Amino acid sequence: MAKGYDAVPDGDRQLLLRYLEAVVAVRRAPVHTAVAFNAVYFGYDLGGDGYGGSPLRPDDFPVITFGECAPALPVGAMVCVATGSDPLYAEIVHREGAHPEVGALGDVPAWVSGAPAGAEGPGKQPESGGDTRRRELLVPDVHAFGPALSLSSTQLHRLRTRRRWINEDGHVVVDVRYPSPESARRDDLTAYTDHLLTTAREQLLSPFVPVSLADLVGGTDDDDLRAGLLGLLDTVRGVIASSSTLRTWGHYAVTRASLAECWGDTGPLGGDDLRSLAAAVEHAALPVRRRHGLTAPIAVYTAVGPRLRQFPGAKELLSGVGYAAAVCRANVTLADVVRSDSDQGLFENGSRITLDDAFESGGIWRSRHPGDAETPGDPLAPAGRGWASTLPAPPEPEEEREPVDLPLADDASLGPDELLRDDADGIVWRAPLRLAHLIGGWFPLHPRAVHELRRSRGSRPVPRLELGHVGRTLEEREATQDVVAELGDASGRLTGIRWPRDFFPGLMLELRRLPDGSAFRVSTIPLTEPVKIDDRVIEHCYDPRVLTREDVPGSDRHGDSAAGLGPRHLVMRTVRRCGLLTLDGHALLDRSVLPTAVYGERPARSQTAALESAVAELLAERLLEPAFGSRDHGGQPHYPARDGQPVIPLVGYRPVRRRVIRPWGGTEADGGGSLALQLVSGHLRRLRPGCSPSEAQRAAFREHCRMLGKADGWELPHGYTFVTEHTRGR
């Protein structure tokens, strides 16, 4: 699990999924990925004791003191609120901006939506250097440590009444200090990783946790700990995302059953109020029609948290962790309405509804009318158009530059040959297929093969190429080809090769030179099970570094050019081509040099703005990820950041590797016939509309829940049946 979601066997994923589903069901607040990690790593008891039996030491928790600026406290942080009497121990389960400019009715000035931390007004960028401060609302779960460490209801009521250490809703509103504007922009999981490796390092490396991270990674080196921690968080996030009984909003997860119960409730903050909220956001920007036509275009920004407080009877429901649950349900409802009732956010009434800021005041939604004049995009990717609208428009340049074509990375360290055998039976080696090989129809020879071929056949022999593609049937002209071996002084290559259509850069090939030198046999190597990386399904061994570098937008066997690509593809191409490359195929690029890397020296301002917008979209869609590195005195970037060097923001490409589930009746990768016997655990399956489960399946599900020790209800969710454990295959 410390190596990430893709490295975890299915059986272990299912065990973790059952536990996390129970955690989400038993906790009143939506469960953030960081909180889910805490539950697994420190041991959260589902019977009511929470972390009470865990090895956590409350004396090690960071302290929030009344009237003082607090350090950054991400979701998942364990804290101690210093009160006038007994300390208040809690786990932060929700965090959002609490900007003073946001009105009580949820009305938001445009510049606040998407503004960076420290911004003081429309278009006023925060000053660089020194601390950056931001007012934040933290929702603590004061019952997370069980009865032994929880204050009584009387004590909590007294604290809420006094409104000093916590407010009347039981929340902490505090000024948070960040060392730089960049650190304030870190995503939740990066911020929590930094918190665990610094402020909470003692509790992370406690020898009393079920399995210490130091044991998992084999030491306490910071780089190893960070990699293992990110792997664990990726596993938790992937398992939660795979659940059929959970819904997610960002990193927060709630049960589908709780959502359905809320939508069916006619009381405060139930289905009627949420539908009213969605209608209000949809119609917020509709102008008043006047005698002489419509008014100018209008953009209205609505903050979810303050807006929910205006519904009658909502006050008590928004106290404590109930506020986090209500905000999550409201955002899920708005997202569902946008997905189902609009075309990329554009509604029939002409308004365009988009999420503009996912952090401030529970989330800020933007309503604009008319909305058809704006370029469509993902309406649920926070765009920060409110803040951007207050920035001075850059002057349009007289001439814009064309993208610079990026050279292929032909260094020897990328995809080197691997000699497997050199004996009387021939020379065997492996090497990845490169983009240049596909375009030019050639492939390099191993130096040992060059030496033997020159000695027996001269400087330009014409051998036969026998090409095999495991699991595929090749055309006759591809399976057997007459090629030319061009031999230099120290290198050589086969030319005139017709590569099959589904060969791609990074595909690993195994080459064998027959002892008589008359032919070369080239074959692909099947994977144990196919995987999907981005949009490509891969069934054969591949080199992840070559795949990242060369299987990029604008590159295929017909050519390699950035001409005609849009900003999103240009960003993705540049990060993958120019970024620092890891062994597993990750690429990280200094974000500040992106425009120069794409367009060369002095790119136009409009081009730079378009690239930044594309980066924001790709980060929101998790096709790219933010990271931090450092720059040395010579200007060379490094990752991870090195001590004593200035920290710089990076943007990284992380190839998303998903397992491909074979359909019924499929065959193994080598075409070996029927599937072997496979045990299938009991699971839920959605029914077609109008169908209902039998009483036998209801009883089987109750028995299944009893055996698992399931914490919430034992009845089948509406619209599902239960498939009992069975085997499949021949």
CA-to-CA gap between the ends?
A: 31 Å
The gyration radius over C-alpha positions equals: 29 Å
Compute the number of strand runs: 35
Secondary structure class reads alpha+beta
Number of helices: 21
Instruction: Name the shape in a single word.
Output: globular
β-sheet strand percentage: 15-25%
Could you give the order of strands across the largest sheet? Answer: 2-4-5-6-7-3
What are its keywords?
28% helix; single chain; alpha+beta; six-stranded mixed beta sheet; 730 residues; 5 domains; At1g16640 B3 domain; 21 helices
Structure description:
The protein has 730 residues and is α+β, with helices and mostly antiparallel strands. The chain is built from 21 helices and 35 strands. It has a 6-stranded mixed β-sheet. It is globular.
What can be said about this structure in brief?
Helix content is 28%, strand content 23%. The protein has 730 residues and is of the alpha+beta class.
Ordered list of secondary-structure elements with their pairings:
Elements lengths: L9 H17 L4 E2 H11 L19 E3 L4 E2 L6 E5 L5 E10 L34 E10 L11 H10 L9 E7 L2 H4 L3 H10 L3 H4 L8 H5 L4 H20 L4 E4 L2 E4 H9 L6 H13 L14 E6 H5 L13 H20 L10 E6 L6 E6 L15 H4 L29 E6 L2 E7 L2 H6 L1 E3 L2 H11 L6 E5 L7 H4 E3 L1 E4 L4 E4 L12 E6 L5 E6 L1 E8 L2 E5 L3 H7 L4 E2 L2 E2 L6 H12 L1 E2 L5 E4 L3 H6 L5 H16 L3 E8 L5 E2 L8 E7 L3 E3 L18 E3 L2 E4 L8 H14 L11 E4 L2 E3 L2
Parallel strand pairs: 2-4, 3-7, 16-21
Antiparallel strand pairs: 1-9, 4-5, 5-6, 6-7, 8-9, 10-12, 11-12, 13-14, 14-20, 15-19, 16-17, 18-19, 20-21, 22-23, 22-31, 24-25, 26-27, 27-30, 28-29, 28-30, 32-35, 33-34
Helix pairs in contact: 1-8, 2-8, 5-8, 10-12, 18-20
